[in-house]
Amino acid sequence: MEHLNPFDDAQLECQVLSNARRQYSLWPAGYPLPAGWQPVFGPQPRAACDSWLAQHWQEPTQIGGHHHV
Question: pTM of the prediction?
Answer without folding.
Answer: 0.75
